[in-house]
Amino acid sequence: MKTLSSRREFLQSSSLALAATALAPLALRAADAPKKRDVKKAIMYATVGVKGSVLEKFRAIKEAGFEGVEAMSHMKQDEVVKAYEETGLKPASVCCDTHWGKPLSDPNPAVRAAGLAGLQQALRDAKRYGAGSVLLVCGVVKTGTTYEQCWERSITEIRKAIPLAEETGVKISIENVWNDFIVKEDEAARYLDEINSPQVMWHFDVGNIIWYGDPIAWIKKLGPRIARLHIKEYSRDLAMKQGKGAGFDAKFLEGANNWPGIMKALDEIGYAGVWGIAEQGGGGSPEGLKDLATRMDKMFAS
C-alpha cells in the first residue's frame, strides 16, 4: 500500500508540474499584455481632416477605430443624429462653436449676450445628441479685457446658463486653452469653487497645459471635477526651435507628455468610463485617423 500511495503521489505531483509548465507562458503573456483602461476613445469633429459629408466623416472615424465623436455646436441636428445612428458612434461631448468669436468676457454686453446664447444652444445640441458635457472656453484676456474682468464677466454669464444645464442634464466643462487665463491648477480649482455648481466642471486638455505646467499636477488638483479629456501631444523641442505653436506638430507618443504618469494620475482620481477626445485630425486621410486611434490605444494602456 505504501508503494502504491507513493506512486500515486508521484503521478499527481508530476501532473501538477506539467500543468504549471504549460500555463507559465500564458501567465507571462498576461503579465506582458498592455493594461486595458476604461477610457473611451473619441475625436473632435472639427479636427477630422477627411473630406465629405457629416455621415461620410463619421464613417471614416468609425472605420479608424474610434468609439465616439465630439460634435460642434450649431451643426444641423438632424444630420448629426443620423450620422450617430447609422455609424453607432457615441456622442462624447459638444464643443461650443461661438466661445472664441463671442467670448463671455467681452467688454461689449451685446457680444457677451451672443456668447451666452451660443452656450445655451450648445447645451440644447448636447441634449439632443445625448452628450453629457459641453466644452466651453470661458473667456479671453486681451486688449480691453483684464484677467480680473475676464474672471468676473465669464462667471456672471456662466451662472445665467446653469438653469438650462440643470434642465438638460448637461455639464458645462471649462477647457484650459491659450487664452492668457487660468494657467495654474490652483486658479482652475478656485474658479470652479467660486461658481460653486455641480453643473460646471472641467474639460482638461493635456497638451495645452504642457507649455505652462504639469498635466499630472492639474489632474490631481481637479480630481473628480474633470468631466472630459482633450488628448493632444506637445513637443517642447519643436516649440523652442520653430515657435510655440509648432509644439502641437508632434505625433502622439513623440512629445513631452508623460503618458504613463498621466494615466496613473487618472487612475488615482477614478477617471474611468469617460471620454478621451483627440484634438488632432490625422492629416486628412483615413490612414492618419487609424494611426491616431492606434497611438491612443497605446497611450491609454501605458
Written description of the protein model:
With 302 residues, this protein is of the alpha/beta class. It folds into two domains: 1-30; 39-300, Alpha-Beta Barrel (TIM Barrel), CATH 3.20.20. Helix content is 49%, strand content 14%. The protein contains ten helices and eight strands. The protein has helices spanning 2-32, 54-64, 77-87, 109-129, 147-168, 185-195, 215-222, 236-242, 259-269, 286-300; strands at residues 39-44, 68-72, 90-95, 133-136, 171-175, 200-205, 226-231, 274-278. Strands 1-2-3-4-5-6-7-8 form an eight-stranded parallel beta barrel, surrounded by six helices. α2 (54-64) links the parallel β1 (39-44) and β2. α2 (54-64) runs parallel beside α3 (77-87) and α2 (54-64) crosses α10 (286-300). It is globular, with a radius of gyration of 24 Å. The N and C termini lie far apart (57 Å).
Q: Can you name the CATH architecture of the largest domain?
A: Alpha-Beta Barrel
Tally of individual helices: 10
Fill in the CATH topology of the largest domain.
TIM Barrel
Domain count: the total is: 2
How are strands sequenced across the largest beta sheet?
1-2-3-4-5-6-7-8
Give the low-pLDDT segments. 1-5, 13-34
Written as H for each helix and E for each strand, in order along the chain, the element string is HEHEHEHEHEHEHEHHEH
How far apart are the first and last residues' alpha carbons, in Å?
57 Å
> So, the CATH homologous superfamily of the largest domain?
Divalent-metal-dependent TIM barrel enzymes
* Residue share in β-strands: 5-15%
Count of distinct strands: 8
Structural class comes to: alpha/beta
What is the overall pLDDT average? Answer: 91
Radius of gyration equals 24 Å
